[in-house]
Amino acid sequence: MKFTINRNSFIRSFNDVSRAIPAKTTIPILTGIKLDLTNDGLLLTGSNSDISIETFMPVSDEELNLQIESVGSVVLTARFFGEVVKRLPEDEFTLEVRDNYQTRLTSGKSEFTVVGIDANDFPRLPEVEDQSELKIGADILRDLINQTVLAVSDQETRPILTGVNFTIDGNGLLAVATDSHRLSQRRLDLPDITSTYRMVIPGKSLQELSRMLADQSGDIALRISENQVLFSFGATKFYSRLLEGNYPDTARLIPTEHNVQLQLNASTFLAAIERAALLSHASRANVVRLVLTPADNSAILSGTSPDVGNVEEALTITALTGDELDISFNPDYMKDALRAFGPAEISLNFTTNLRPFTLVPTADGEHFVQLITPVRTFN
């Protein structure tokens, strides 16, 4: 196996595939990246227990300047191999696999020899047999992930809650995540859906996918099998395992009525929460307090730490209706929720100071809702 390739182009593809490679694993070969060279081009593959990523670098791509002398395959330790390639002196480098998978890298006057592994020992990628395919805009999918994955649980005591629950049917796509203290739900209208799919994708997989989609445009193709989902975009394929088990029924958790409604700008509210959190983070309880007085059109946010001091701020609001309310909540949950809305105008809908409350954009409350459970305090 021997080829020469443009170094910067190779590094871009290598970095994408490296997202799937674990720093530590009980399966040593998974710390490596697999290189498959055919007459058509170079295929890079990385994998761990949750995700697998492969990207193809075709010989027809002039930017790659891929020159193939002999085909073959090898697995190289990703961390060391990547550091070597990034530090090679010239714009191009040559990789040659010799006896016993000893791999020589040359660029200019530099030469490295890296110990390789037989590619036949690398686990096979999962097969996604379902031929039906959905297409979603890359920017839409990225926003959906970022708006929901914030609410997944980081506790393995309930593994099903560490993922985002996707339901795809005639009503479109519904994505829901909850850690039992907060919830985020996003709905997309998708035309011509004739089948029904239900799957729970690990939050960590979705976070890596979102990062890869940052520079993508156009549509992402999505295919689903019994225990795997495949996202295809450009020359890259992103596989993720699905979580096993039944996701809880979250529809009943979202209140359909409210007694108090506060409307304000999400960005302005976020800045105020960040100021109040400076004090709440110094306190063991880590809560902020919101006092609403509709008769005075007043919304007062405060944070207190017995050891540091307190802060109190009158919020700039658009509207306030309903009953008086004194409620406390975790500021970190609120910050995550507000960041997902960006600069939009939002409505906070409350029932009582002990029941979960919702946040929705005033322009489109049907498609995006977040829910936060308040904190009981004893004054």
Automatic annotation (TrEMBL):
Summarize the protein's role.
Answer: Confers DNA tethering and processivity to DNA polymerases and other proteins. Acts as a clamp, forming a ring around DNA (a reaction catalyzed by the clamp-loading complex) which diffuses in an ATP-independent manner freely and bidirectionally along dsDNA. Initially characterized for its ability to contact the catalytic subunit of DNA polymerase III (Pol III), a complex, multichain enzyme responsible for most of the replicative synthesis in bacteria; Pol III exhibits 3'-5' exonuclease proofreading activity.
**A Gene Ontology molecular function term of the record:** DNA-directed DNA polymerase activity
According to the entry, every stretch annotated as the DNA polymerase III beta sliding clamp C-terminal domain falls at 252-376
**What InterPro entries is this protein classified in?**
DNA_clamp_sf, DNA_polIII_beta, DNA_polIII_beta_C, DNA_polIII_beta_cen, DNA_polIII_beta_N
Q: Which PANTHER family match?
A: BETA SLIDING CLAMP (PTHR30478:SF0), DNA POLYMERASE III SUBUNIT BETA (PTHR30478)
- Which Pfam families did the record assign? DNA_pol3_beta, DNA_pol3_beta_2, DNA_pol3_beta_3
Family membership noted in the UniProt record: Belongs to the beta sliding clamp family.
> What species does this protein belong to?
Lapidilactobacillus achengensis
Keywords of the record: Cytoplasm, DNA replication, DNA-binding, DNA-directed DNA polymerase, Nucleotidyltransferase, Transferase
Q: Which residues form the DNA polymerase III beta sliding clamp central domain?
A: 137-249
- Localization terms from the record: Cytoplasm
Q: Which residues form the DNA polymerase III beta sliding clamp N-terminal domain?
A: 1-126
Chief subcellular location equals cytoplasm
Q: Tell me the protein's name.
A: Beta sliding clamp
Can you state the subunit structure given in the record? Forms a ring-shaped head-to-tail homodimer around DNA.
